[in-house]
Every structure is written in C-alpha cells, then in structure tokens.
Design a protein that fits this description.
Largest sheet: 2 strands, antiparallel
Number of helices: 3
Strand content: 5-15%
Distance between the termini: 24 Å
Radius of gyration: 14 Å
Shape: globular
Strand order of the largest sheet: 1-2
Structural class: mainly alpha
Order of helices and strands: HEEHH
Amino acid sequence: ASGDDLTPNFKQRIWEIPKLRKSAKDAPYCMSCYRSNSGGNLVLAHSNSLEHGKGVGLKTPDFFGAYLCNECHDQQEGRSGNLTREGRQELHRRAHDRTMIYWMENGILA
C-alpha cells in the first residue's frame, strides 16, 4: 500500500494479463454501446483514473479494463465526442462493470 491508506502502488508491478486482452476478440459486443464485435473490433480499454494507477506513461492494470469498440474507446479517451471528464469516466465504469460480469460468467476471471 502507498502511504497510510489501502491504495495499491501499481508502479511497483506490471499488471498485464494476456488472457484478458486476448479474450476481447471473443466478446460478443462492446460493453458500452452493445455494437456487435464483428471482425474483432473490440479492445481492452484501460481506465484513465488516477485511483486505478493511471499516471504519465503508465497504464492501469488490465483488470480495470473494459471491452470497447473503437468508437467508444475514442470517446472514453476524449479523442472524439463531447463527453466531460466525468462522462468519460462514467462510460468506462459502466463498461467495466459489464466486462467484469462477462469475465465471471465465461470463466475468464475467477
């Protein structure tokens, strides 16, 4: 833990989980807009939240990721659309919750 709280210090470890990244191609749809995953157009989009370990040059651990299509990923990253920071975080949070359920229901994460 960093400091006197229970926040993990993600800078000390690399939290890449290949199974979570690879399974994006098999997910049935985007966990934000429900667009079909035709042609394997989903990616594991990482959280941009500081509380999840995001920093300059640092991605958050894969288990904070969400399966998003390219369009939703661009919105979550602020590259397109007009979502506020809070809106981008909410998009990711909802998609992450759905992704976690998908992982559990399909034995990807136990």
